UniProtKB/TrEMBL annotation:
Protein name (record): NADH-ubiquinone oxidoreductase chain 4
UniProt domain NADH:quinone oxidoreductase/Mrp antiporter transmembrane: residue ranges: 10-152
Keyword Oxidoreductase tagged: no
Enzyme Commission number, as recorded: 7.1.1.2
Amino acid sequence: PTLKTDTFLPFIILALWGATLANLTCLQQTDLKSLIAYSSISHMGLVIAAIMIQTQWSLSGTMALMIAHGFTSSALFCLANTSYERTKTRIMILTRGLHNILPMMTTWWLLMNLMNIATPPSINFTGELMIASSLFNWCPTTIIMFGLSMLITASYSLHMFLSTQMNPLLPNSPIQPTHSREHLLMLLHTAPLMLISMKPELVI
C-alpha cells in the first residue's frame, strides 16, 4: 500500500546507498582486512533493505545471505591471516605473487572471492537473487542501486584477488609453506556453504 511505500522507501534507499558507498570504500582500500570488513558492511546494507520489505521472499533471501556471508567473510579473514602470518603486512600490493609459492591457497582465495560476488550456484547467489527480485517487485527503481552495488562488488573482489595472488613475487621474501590445519580450516568453511548451496531448504 501507499502508506507502507511512503514510510519504508526512504530507509530502503538509504540502506542501498550505504551499501554502494561501502562498496566504493572497498575499492579505495589498500589494507586487506579493512577491505573485507567494509565488504561485510555493504552486504548488510542489502540485508537491511530486504528486511524493510517484509515479504516471504525478501526474508528468505535475507536469511540465506546472512548465513552465506557469515561463512564467506570468516573464510576471507582466515585467508587474510594466513597471508599476514607469512608477509607480516596487510597491504595488498606487498602480499602479491603468492600463487607462485602457495597455489592451493590461491585456489581457496579464488573460491571465496567467487562466493563473495555471489556466483551461481552458491547460496550467496540464491540469497541475492531473492533480495533483488523482492526489491524489483516492490519498487523497480531500486534495482539501479542494487545493480551498481553488485558491479562494484565484483570489481573490488577481482582487485583483491589480483593484488594478493597475481603479479611478480617481491624479491627476498621467504614464504613459509601452508599447514594442513589451514587447509582444514578452509574446508570447514567451504563444506557448509556447498551443502547449503545444494540444499537451500536447510536455511530458507
